Amino acid sequence: xxxxxxxxxxxxxxxxxxxxxxxxxxxxxxxxxxxxxxxxxxxxxxxxxxxxxxxxxxxxxxxxxxxxxxxxxxxxxxxx
Length: 80
Known about the structure:
By secondary structure, the protein is of the alpha+beta class. It has one domain: GMP Synthetase, Chain A, domain 3. The protein is 46% helix and 25% strand. The protein is built from three helices and three strands, in the order H-E-E-H-E-H. The chain has helices spanning 3-13, 42-59, 72-79; strands spanning 18-23, 27-33, 64-70. It has a three-stranded mixed β-sheet with strand order 1-2-3. A hairpin with a 3-residue loop joins strand 1 and strand 2. Helix 1 packs across helix 2. The radius of gyration is 12 Å and the shape is globular.
């Protein structure tokens, strides 16, 4: 599985203001910035993203993904 395919899966299921994903084919790291995260805690945000990847994780096609989930306001504040 390549990063571009994972990006496509995420973007097909949610609107993102910013999405960056990198990995080695087995393990991936992502930054997902979306207005859809407003009012959700960290666990709920992760569950929201995992919904788009559930099938690939279940089959083992996608092995490991770690990510940061931020609202646009949090992303802006973090970037200074």
